[in-house]
Structure formats: C-alpha cells, structure tokens
C-alpha cells in the first residue's frame, strides 16, 4: 500500500501501523531492530528531531520502503549526484582500510 507522507507525524503513524501489523510490542520491535525503545517511541510520535540513520534503520527493520517522487528533470541530476556520492564513499573506505592496515603493521 502506498501512502503519501508529508510530515514527521505521518511517518510515525506508518511506523506504528507496520509494527502493530507484525504484532510486535514496541520494546520487542526496538530490540530486534537495534534501537532503543525510547527512540522508537519518538519515531512513532513523529518527533521532529530524530537521527536519520536510525530512522531508516527502523523503517528497514519493519519492512517499510521509502520512495521519493522527484520531478523528471531532477532525475538525471539525482543519478549524477548518486554516482559522485558512491565514489566519495569508496575513496573514504579505501583510506580507512589503508589506515587499518598501517596500524596493524
């Protein structure tokens, strides 16, 4: 089912519904996802200031997929930016591995 999300509180409603559909208590869901029960509660209440990485961890853990509908003319720019980000992440990972290898020597 697709739902248009426009606010943090609407994301919270979606997360709560996904958790309840799986018949999970909040504490059990939080534990299996790897976040605190307090954090999951904030997400479900639609708190405006949550950590993006953890939010996506919760969404993934509950099987909630996020789709962004951008204007067609932005699609090519998005693809270019995604490639640039991938290259930056790969370079950073290569530097991290090199530092670890140097530290082990």
TrEMBL record:
Q: Name one Pfam family in it.
A: HTH_31
Cross-referenced InterPro entries: Cro/C1-type_HTH, Lambda_DNA-bd_dom_sf
Instruction: Give coiled-coil spans as residue ranges.
Output: none
CDD domains given in the database record: HTH_XRE
- Every copy of the HTH cro/C1-type domain together lies at 15-70
Any one GO molecular function term:
DNA binding
Bilayer-crossing residues are none
Gene3D superfamilies to which the protein is assigned, alphabetical? lambda repressor-like DNA-binding domains
The residues forming the signal peptide are none
What is the protein named?
XRE family transcriptional regulator
Q: Which organism is it from?
A: Caballeronia zhejiangensis
